[in-house]
Amino acid sequence: MSQQFHLINESVKQNAINFIRDLPVDQKRPLILDIKEMKRTAEQNRKMWPLLKDLSDQVVWFGNKYDSDDWKDLITALVAKTKKQEQRMAPGLNGGVVMFGQRTSKMKIGQMVEVIEAIYWFGTQQGVRFSEKSKLEIAWAKRWGERHA
User: Fold this and answer.
1) Distance (Å, whole) CA 101 – CA 89
2) What single-letter DSSP state applies at residue 27?
3) Could you give the angle at which helices 109-125 and 132-147 cross, rounded to 10 degrees?
4) DSSP track, 76-122
5) Pairing relation of β-strands 64-65 and 60-61?
């Protein structure tokens, strides 16, 4: 059995409460309720990539040009808040170094807004001229941040 409720209004909340009331209680095989924030949206993911592309096209960092995936790792390390999210590294099993990064697919919506804002902040510091598509995404992130501050 699996049921999911997106608590967007009181009606949905009441439906969830009624659903829980009707669930069976069994000490030997208890059901588990898992309440969590939504993960980042596909829309947020689409907003992030044009910004990263602008960084990859225009920024040389310590003598190196990086692609969008590399910039994603650099930016997510910047916004990491907990030990689990921190950028860490270990010796590779076959030599070299392996970096453990934060997965944006596991981020909550608010964390993704921080990533998008961090890209904009860093790019601005580096003199990046954001593309028209990126400017639209930046405006969206700013509006979201203001509404949810």
Assistant:
1) 9
2) S
3) 130
4) HHHH--STTTS-EEEE-BTBSEEEE---GGG-BHHHHHHHHHHHHHH
5) antiparallel
Amino acid symbol at 25: V
pTM exceeds 0.70 for this model: no
For strand 88-91 and strand 97-100, is the pairing parallel, antiparallel, or unpaired? antiparallel
- Taking only the tens place, the pLDDT of each residue in 16-31 is 999 999 999 999 999 9
> Are the CB atoms for 51 and 119 separated by under 8 Å?
yes
Determine how many CB atoms are found less than 10 A away from the CB of residue 141: 22
Tell me the per-residue pLDDT of 71-92, one tens digit each, with 9 for 90 and over. 998 888 888 765 455 667 788 8
User: Are 56 and 131 spatial neighbours (Cβ–Cβ below 8 Å)?
Assistant: no
The tokens describing 56, both together, are: 């990859």
Give the DSSP per-residue string, 58-88: H-EETTEE--HHHHHHHHHHHH--STTTS-E
Kindly list the distances between the CA atom of residue 122 and the CA atoms of 19, 41, 91, 117, 128, in Å, as whole numbers in the listed order: 46, 23, 29, 9, 9
